[in-house]
Design goal:
Helix content: over 70%
Strand content: under 5%
Number of strands: 0
Number of helices: 2
Structural class: mainly alpha
Shape: rod-shaped
Largest sheet: none
């Protein structure tokens, strides 16, 4: 939170950086779910292949 406060006080960076923070956060969360889903599918496929 302190970092966001410092960015808010810097007028040259304020709008661009603070508006991109939610975009970056949403991208990270979306990517995490995509990778999680892909790993789960791969693991299920490998387990079904190895199980008699």
């Amino acid at each position: 939170m302190a970092l966001l406060g410092l960015m808010w006080n810097d007028t040259a960076v304020r709008c661009r950086t603070l508006l991109l923070v939610p975009v970056v956060a949403a991208t990270l969360v979306g990517s995490w779910f995509a990778v999680r889903r892909r790993v789960a599918r791969t693991a299920d496929g490998e387990l079904s292949r190895l199980t008699p």
